[in-house]
Write a structure and sequence with these properties.
By secondary structure, the protein is mainly α. It contains 3 helices and no strands.
Length: 61
Amino acid sequence: MSDLIMAIGLLFFIEGLLLAMFPSRIKNMLKIIETMSENKLRYSGIFFLLIGFFIIWYLRS
């Protein structure tokens, strides 16, 4: 359970760091994302989900 809390904390830290360092770029990326199709967003999400899974799996084994 502590690993899950650590991962969520790390996620918040990275998100906050990016928002603090590059606020205008984040706004531009959100505008681009708004114009993308739902399927493209879904496949991108699945792609990053799989990358994250394999990184965690590799580090845990």
